[in-house]
Every structure is written in structure tokens, then in C-alpha cells.
Structure prediction request, 335 residues.
Amino acid sequence: MKLDRSPSSATWYRRGGGIDFKDLTEQQILALAISFEEDDARIYEQYADALRENYPTSAQMFTVVAQEEHQHRHRLIDLYQAKFGDRIPLIRRQDVRGFIERKPIWLIQPLDIGKIRRQVEMMESESAAFYAKAAHRSQDAAIRKLLGDLAAEESVHEAKAESIESELITDAVHVSEKETHRRQMLLQIIQPGLAGLMDGSVSTLAPIFAAAFATQDTWSTFLIGLAAAIGAGISMAFAEAMSDTGLLTGRGSPWIRGLVTGGMTTLGGLFHTFPFLISNFRLAVSVAVGVVLVELTTIAWIRKRFMDTPFLAAVFQVVVGGALVFLAGILIGSA
Prediction:
């Protein structure tokens, strides 16, 4: 078997757009179906590899489904060789108008087993519709029979996957996977975001309020606060991204953690900076102090909700630290 990639063989391709499904020949339909099965099997194998460490039972389920897609591909290739020979033109779903391109696994981060299973449902539904429509258009009896059989198999594939899932994934496994997902969200999103929010909310208090009381000018204070928030965000983003690769600690992509930490740091600094857009100094300071109290309470609630820290203890820790930084800013600005 050879994949024919030469320009002369690709007469089906239309520059600037792709081709309509209705214009495909039976040879091209079989080539597209082979490409379908190759892509889907590869995606299922990637899911299995990505899930194997933390979701071994779900990984086993996707391995079984990938094997079935390989069986479909072999049947399609056998029929293609019998009808058209060994040269198979490379036709992909993105070359044909109307098909949904599969989402690569790196876009499903952090890994969410629910999102993956919903994507699988969409893949099987699209494949069943493709085979049914292709079988209806085919005039060759053998091709029509195989495409019809695959349409029927894809239609029940989702139910079969659910059956495999019910056998492999017990209630205990569901609980374990849910806990694993919660732990991954905690390590990869919640903890970096909380660290950034705390740093942005607390560390920028001193320079902002020092500038406010030193200048008594709200616009100058706003500019200083803006610079402090953005600078802290950039610094925290690089610090988090470079702290570890996530391969050994399970903390996920360093770039995602860096973006989350940097973004939350910047937001934490901006929240109590925006009130200084108010021209009245006393009013701006009063609103900023109120915003700071809301920020610190929110941080305490997040620590209680996700870090299992008692609320009063979290409030005490956050408020004491924030108050000391706040007072340092006022004393320095008033000197």
C-alpha cells in the first residue's frame, strides 16, 4: 500500500478551498474513509496514552476503541486495493467542505475525562453520518455494502463504548477519576491562580498606597499601580513557568501555570488600582480600601474552598499579612 501524495494524482483538490462531498468519486470516498479511520484511531491512542497514568481504566477503554478503528481501516484498505490498486490518494477531512476537524489533545488541557468522552461521542456521530451518506451515493455493490456495514457499526459504536465503559469503569473508578481530576485542577490551575492572586493583591498594596499618600494625586497613583500590577504579573508568570516542567510533580504544563499565575497576579493588583481613576482623592482611597477588604476575603474563601483551610484561620493569615503591607505603604507614603 502506498499513499499517493504527488500533485498529479490530486486532481480532486481545489485550490483555495477544498471540495464538496457530492463531487467525490467512489475511489476518493474510500480514500477519505481510510484517512478518517487512521485519524480517529490515532486520536483514541493519544487519549489512552495521556490518560494511562491517572485514569488507567479509561485508557484501557480508549485502547479497545482504537483497535476497532484499526479493524475498520484494514477492511477499507483491502477493498480499496481490490478495486483501485495500491496507490491511495491522501484525502483528509479538512480537504472536504462540511467536516469538523478533530480537536488535538493539547487543546484539552488540563485533561478533563468528561470533555474527552463528549468529543468521542461527536466523533462517532460524525463518522456514522459520513458512512451512511457515502453508502447512499455509492453505485458499486461491494463498496456500498462495506460503507453501509461501517455506518451501522459506527452507529452502535457509541453504545458499545458505553458498554465497555460500564464494564471497566465501576462506581469506585468514577470516584477515583473524579478525585484525580480534582487534584489535577488543584495542582495545575487553583494553586497557581491563588498564588498569583495573593501576590498581586498583597504585594502591590505598599507601592500603590505609598504613592497615593505621598503624591495625593489619583492619576499618578493609578499609573504607578498599573505598572506595579503588570510588572508583578510578568515576573510571577516567568517565575512559575520556570519553577518546574510539571513532568515529575504532576503540575501540568509550565506555560499554562505561568499564564494563570501571571494573569491572576495582574488582576489582583489591578482591582485596587482602578479606584484611583476617581479624581476625588478621599473617595478613591475609600473605595480602594473597600476593594482590598473584598479581595482578602475572597482569597480566604478560596483557601477554605479548595485548600481545606479553616475560614477563620485563612482570614487571619491573609488579613494580617495584607494589613501589615497596607500599613507599611501608608507609613512610607506619609513620611
Summary: The longest strand covers residues 2-4.
